[in-house]
Design brief:
elongated
């Protein structure tokens, strides 16, 4: 069975930067609302963007051996929307997974 080609380190680092910046900015924005109204349901747009972040981070880390990323699932857009504090928690876990990746590869900080 042929093996899937791995991404070049430059391509991987570029993808990491794009995803890390997106996830960090979303985490910051969700955190602002969560600080004021943690139990409020997130908006449909925030739900969509959070699921995009989850999918993007999981795809980026697919070939990494991160011990926690598989435990993070998408929010299901049915019934009541998740609370801001839950979205903030998941986004925090995503940014932590990205930080572990950055450390493993020895890349410099984004900010």
């Amino acid at each position: 069975m042929p093996t899937k080609p791995t991404k070049s380190i430059e391509t991987l680092e570029s993808a990491y930067r794009d995803v890390a910046i997106m996830a960090a900015n979303l985490y910051t924005e969700v955190g602002k609302v969560a600080a004021k109204r943690p139990e409020s349901g997130i908006s449909e747009l925030t739900l969509l963007r959070t699921n995009v972040a989850i999918t993007s981070v999981k795809e980026l880390l697919r070939d990494e051996s991160d011990p926690f990323i598989d435990q993070i699932g998408l929010f299901v857009p049915a019934g009541d929307l998740p609370e801001y504090r839950d979205a903030g928690l998941v986004l925090s876990e995503l940014t932590a997974a990205l930080e572990r990746m950055r450390v493993r590869h020895g890349w410099f900080r984004l900010r």
